[in-house]
Amino acid sequence: DTAVSQTPKYLVTQMGNDKSIKCEQNLGHDTMYWYKQDSKKFLKIMFSYNNKELIINETVPNRFSPKSPDKAHLNLHINSLELGDSAVYFCASSPRLSGGPREETQYFGPGTRLLVL
Amino acid sequence: KNEVEQSPQNLTAQEGEFITINCSYSVGISALHWLQQHPGGGIVSLFMLSSGKKKHGRLIATINIQEKHSSLHITASHPRDSAVYICAVRSTGTASKLTFGTGTRLQVTL
Fold first, then answer.
1. Is the Cα dihedral B50, B62, B6, B58 positive or negative?
2. What residues form DSSP beta bridges with B55?
3. Is some CB atom of chain A closer than 8 A to the CB atom of B98?
4. Do A103 and B50 touch (CB under 8 A)?
5. How far is B99 from chain A, CA to nearest CA, in Å?
6. In terms of CA atoms, which chain B residue is nearest residue A57?
7. Angle ∠(B11,B15,B19) on CA atoms, nearest 5
8. What pLDDT, on a 0 to 100 scale, did the predictor assign at position B72?
9. In Å, how far are A47, A50, A51, B12, B89 from A55, measured between CA atoms?
């Protein structure tokens, strides 16, 4: 059974389009994340949500809008796609929000490879 | 300069060799993660540590908080260990944000 799933796995689209990537976790976790991995394989946090509440928005253009309808889902909507948005986007979840002495293991989805032409 | 630096960037080893991958960071941290990214792209968490040493099978992770340094060791390496190994740190005082290193690409040959 898939723990963290993302759809679609591949997404090819043209500049200017609007697209969404969906993420679902069946682990009962409270916290979910979106990461972007660029062409040099460098991972960077974009957003984190805890119990449907936005915790981190890490200098991401406002063309990117996360939406968490419930704590098992964190979707990423991207408006007016640009060439530089081409990357692999990973969703992840952890049981709870890490903080202070408490650190949580993160479970990653398989990634969505976005190519903007 | 990245807050998290890994070395080497690329590593080729023969099957059976002992492998060490290093991670240095420049900020105070509450925890450090080692992740493995398979050739197919999937990412798996290997270790999470804040002090000392952890072992899982042929993998060992150590951390020295004073020196701001961590190492990932693989004993008796095997071609299936070929992957990108990524170090990530959680800075103190920053909730839910991991900062990642650029990764070390390991290729283990027969």
1. negative
2. B60
3. yes
4. yes
5. 7
6. B97
7. 45
8. 98
9. 7, 7, 10, 40, 18
Looking at residue B81, what DSSP letter applies? G
- Considering chain B, what is the average pLDDT of its residues? 93
Residue A45: which of B98, B102, B103 has the nearest Cβ? Answer: B98
Q: Which of A46, A7, A9, A11 is nearest to A24 (CA)?
A: A7
- Which residues of B, range 24-83, sit inside 8 Å of A by Cβ? 30-31, 33, 35, 37, 41-45, 48, 50
Measured distance CA(A42)–CA(B80) in Å, rounded: 22
pLDDT above 70 for B95: no
Q: Across residues A12-19, what is the average pLDDT? A: 97
CA nearest A47: which of A18, A25, A67, A29? A67
- pLDDT one-digit tens code per residue, B32-84: 999 999 988 899 999 999 999 999 999 999 999 999 999 999 999 999 999 99
Angle at B63 between CA B62 and CA B66, to 5 degrees: 150
